[in-house]
Amino acid sequence: MPSIAAYEFADFVQTAAFLKDQPVFALADGTVRFPAGGERSVVAHEGGLLSARLDMDGARLLSGGEDGRVVAITSGGQAEELASIGSKWVGAVAGGPRGAVGFASGRNAYVRLPDGTLKTVPHARTVEDIAFAPKGLRAATAHYDGASLFFPATGAEPVSLEWKGAHLGVLFSPDGRFLVTLMQENALHGWRVEDGKHMKMTGYPGKVKDWSFSAKGKFLATSGAPAAILWPFSGRDGPMGKAPLELGTRGDTMVTAVACHPSEDMVAIGYQDGMILAVRFADAKEALLRRGGTGPVRTMGWDAKGRLLAFGSESGEAGVVDISG
């Protein structure tokens, strides 16, 4: 059984990640905690934190909150306000190439360009999420009835990718060839970026709330079932006509979080009862990382070397698992 450094927080953990070699936990109460080696607490937002993600190079944690601010936090605990839009809530943030930062509020997507210029991209519907392509300054948003693609440095109109229903999250594949959305329904939807070809990923018994691409981009691991569902994304057509892998099946216990290893074909799987398993793609071999807890695992993140796994739960339990022993 791997060793675990356990922590307990008073609110649920929105995001667990690593800044350089330090575990960091963003809480719904607006604070960002650095618990290792004596706890440090950074107040990122007044009123509540709504979204937190690492930027593209992993050097900063970006967060958005109910106070209308976007904040970047470094491994040293320094907080820098990147943008403020008044009383409007910032519901999603994302890091882009060369330090660009995107965020969403109401019917607007915003992109802070590498030179500090703030671009506003209006939408007809509420923008639920934003993401950047892995290369070039291109962004995507999720909203009702589909997704949009745009180049924030230009004034060109966004390109619409339509599919009926509410789309709540958006993600590019690591090679930039595919765009995938989380839906309010128990499904994912995707498009091939070059020609807009549709990809339907259905059959989930529950809503998909977490996802993670594997290190080489061959699989997209997802929650929303009593196993981690991994859709194959190698080949021109992505998952179309291919059956997904199902890893870590545990009866009726739902998977609530997934995190693919940064270099190996392996995924960490968190469950509604707090258990965490590590499972290899090739042979489905399982390793128990955590027996369970008081609440569902909400978030997980590996360090750059793939030796440490940070996790956080809806009950405020958190920790760092050392898989090397």
UniProtKB/TrEMBL annotation:
Protein name (Swiss-Prot/TrEMBL): WD40 repeat domain-containing protein
Pfam family, one: ANAPC4_WD40
InterPro entries attached to this UniProt entry: Apc4-like_WD40_dom (IPR024977), Quinoprotein_ADH-like_sf (IPR011047), WD40/YVTN_repeat-like_dom_sf (IPR015943), WD40_rpt (IPR001680)
Domain Anaphase-promoting complex subunit 4-like WD40: 262-323
Domain of life per record: Bacteria
